[in-house]
Specification:
The structure is a single chain. By secondary structure, the chain is mostly helical. It has helices at residues 18-23, 40-58, 65-69, 72-75, 77-98, 105-131, 138-144, 172-195, 199-220, 228-232, 236-268, 273-299, 308-329, 336-366, 380-393, 396-402, 416-419, 431-451, 457-476, 480-513, 525-546, 554-578, 590-598, 607-610. The longest helix is centred in the last third of the chain and has 34 residues, at 480-513.
């Protein structure tokens, strides 16, 4: 009779095929057995019990201290191999004999031995999984093999020669070899237990230990299970910190944690697809859902912060880049919820990003400060808006996908000249390029309005030149250069030259007009005196006004100096050389004029701020 507490095996389960198990045994008729002699199946099971019982009882953890404290697979790998073979032979003999006499005493005895063997293998399976966590950590497993080749790794238990292998931990190859051995041991035990009808016991041990590793790994990476309401109650600084942890976590989790666990699970349970699926799904689902639900909860964070969009873009990029891995690792039908959650988070992040960009455009259009910038310098709006747009341009690839459903104004509503980019039916500009051209156009239109607040028109043109120069410099030094193209930049530089020309004409025109274009030696002294007097007055007045001008960009500053010097100095020098004998009415030599012109305009006192790197913190004027 079976031992108390031991279950009775169902030898007629469809899982057991009679074809393979009986093929190695010949028919009793071949040996001429008479009805009075033991049947062939009885002889087979007798012989099998004789061979298996000493081996199995030696390693019965309930009978000897040695078997209780010693690991079969660590003590003697060759004996472990023999033990597994004994179990396989015993299972085959039991199945063969049960077809003739399901109530045989030998069958009961064999069943008792089988339960002892399974208890031994359960113990070994648990020990290997528990003791070898270092060699079965996902990172080590990920380096051993790729998922595409796992199913074919070490199908036979042929590692006796590895008994003398030194495992010190320093050598990567040694660690990988040992990980392979451990994985082979687990697979051998799992296949033996599953084929013997003990799949449930095997899976229970595996799931408990490996699920704890995934759950612990997710926690150690700084990702916790949070609801949308919990995230909403957090300050943005706290949410931002958790996003940073998540961005690191998703990379490690996909490349190492889940990938390694899938490799291990695929290898250990390679013999049964259904078991592989249910096992990996159960150990990974909770951790994966925690990981991929966090971005959706952040997307629902309702506090309106324009800088939030960059964190959302980081998360969107991370999921989009790992999506192929997500679909490959969580490929089972039972893991559709995980894949669906990742896609849902991607969609929600995209919606939130589109909303944030609309809010930025609205804030840009509604910005209504009336204060003029002293000296026609760079407006804070220009700095803030360009910093924001430059950062957005770094995400142009993902923004192309996100904004595909929200294109900029149709070409018919605004002509190409408004955008400044090449965009025709024959050579259409990418939608993302038109979007960024549109954002900068909004800024430039706003600056045009602010220029009208200057009472001095020449200062208004300097303001436009300064701010457009700032925009062009930022475009040239960022990803915007590739989005907008050289054609856009050339057109804006042409506008800058026009602004400078207008500024010269209005600021220095009366100085230039005070000098005769063709000095006449026959002029009367009084006429020469009046010309010098008018020039001196006009120059001093213009110089006084220009002394307050601010030009932070050195290239534009030099351009302004050269432009006005070319228009004034040659004419003045010619007139001066013709009438320099009238020293009593001459106030400025050509050298003096050159010196004064090279002294103006001045740099901005806040040039360090102007040249600062883009910040993800958006000032209140754009909120």
């Amino acid at each position: 009779m079976p031992r108390k507490g031991m279950r009775t095996l169902n030898w007629f389960s469809p899982k057991h095929s009679t074809t393979d198990s009986t093929s190695q045994f010949s028919s009793p008729s071949r040996f001429g057995f008479s009805p009075s002699r033991p049947s062939f199946s009885e002889a087979v099971i007798d012989r099998t019990l004789e061979m298996a019982e000493p081996m199995i009882m030696k390693w019965n953890p309930d009978t000897t201290t040695f078997a209780k404290v010693t690991s079969l697979f660590y003590e003697n790998r060759g004996e472990a191999n023999d033990f597994i073979k004994c179990v396989h032979n015993l299972q085959k003999a039991m199945h063969f004999h049960s077809t003739e006499n399901s109530r045989s005493d030998n069958l009961v005895r064999a069943q008792s031995l089988m339960q002892i063997a399974m208890k031994r293998l359960q113990k070994e399976f648990y020990q290997i999984l528990s003791i070898n966590r270092a060699h079965l950590d996902p990172e080590s497993i990920s380096t051993v093999s790729s998922r595409t080749s796992t199913v074919s790794i070490i199908s036979d238990f042929d590692v006796e020669d590895d008994d003398d292998r030194v495992i010190g931990g320093e050598s990567v190859s040694v660690v990988e070899d040992f990980s392979n051995i451990v994985m082979a041991d687990l697979r051998l035990i799992a296949e033996c237990m599953i084929s013997s009808g003990y799949a449930k016991e095997c899976l229970t041990i595996y799931k408990v230990i490996r699920k704890s590793i995934i759950d612990e790994g997710i926690y150690r990476l700084g990702v916790e299970k949070l609801s949308s309401s919990q995230v909403h109650k957090m300050d943005w600084e706290v949410v931002d910190m958790r996003i940073k942890d998540w961005l690191n976590a998703v990379d490690v989790a996909m490349k190492t944690l889940f990938n390694g666990e899938r490799i291990l699970c695929d290898h250990v349970f390679a013999s049964d697809d259904a078991i592989r699926e249910s096992c990996f799904t159960e150990i990974s689902k909770d951790g994966a859902m925690i990981l991929f639900s966090f971005p959706e909860n952040v997307a629902k964070y309702s506090k309106k912060l324009p800088e939030k969009v960059f964190r959302l873009l980081d998360m969107y990029t991370a999921i989009a880049e790992h999506l192929p891995e997500i679909e490959a690792i969580f490929s089972f039908d039972s893991e559709s919820a995980i894949r669906s959650q990742a896609v849902t988070s991607l969609v929600k992040l995209g919606e939130c990003i589109r909303t944030a960009l609309v809010e930025f455009e609205t804030a840009l259009q509604k910005e209504s400060s009336k204060t003029t910038v002293a000296g026609g310098g760079i407006h804070p709006l220009t700095i803030d808006a360009m910093n924001y747009i430059i950062l957005l341009a770094d995400y142009s690839n993902v923004l192309s996908d996100i904004l595909a459903e929200a294109p900029p104004p149709a070409k018919a509503s605004l002509p190409e000249s408004f955008f400044g980019i090449v965009d025709s039916d024959a050579s259409p500009a990418p939608a993302i390029s038109r979007r960024f051209a549109w954002l900068i156009l909004l800024l430039l239109c706003k600056l045009d309005g602010k220029a009208k607040q200057y009472k001095d028109v020449s200062l208004a043109y300097l303001f436009l030149a300064n701010n457009l120069q700032y925009v062009v410099v930022k475009v040239r030094s960022s990803n915007l250069k590739y989005l907008l193209g050289e054609n856009w930049i050339s057109k804006q530089e042409g506008k800058i030259k026009q602004f400078v020309s207008n500024k010269d004409r209005l600021g220095w025109g009366h100085v230039i007009e005070s000098l005769p274009q063709e000095p006449n030696a026959t002029m009367t002294p009084q006429q020469v005196k009046e010309i010098f007097k008018k020039f001196n007055s006009s120059f001093e007045q213009a110089h006084r006004k220009q002394s307050v001008c601010v030009v932070p960009n050195s290239k534009l500053r030099d351009s302004l100096k050269v432009s006005i010097a070319r228009k004034i100095l040659p004419v003045y020098r010619k007139f001066y050389n013709t009438h320099k004998h009238m020293m009593h009415v001459i106030k400025f030599s050509p050298e003096d004029i050159g010196h004064y012109l090279s002294d103006r305009p001045i740099e901005s006192g806040s040039s360090s701020t102007v040249e600062s790197s883009p910040s993800r913190t958006i000032p209140s004027r754009l909120r």
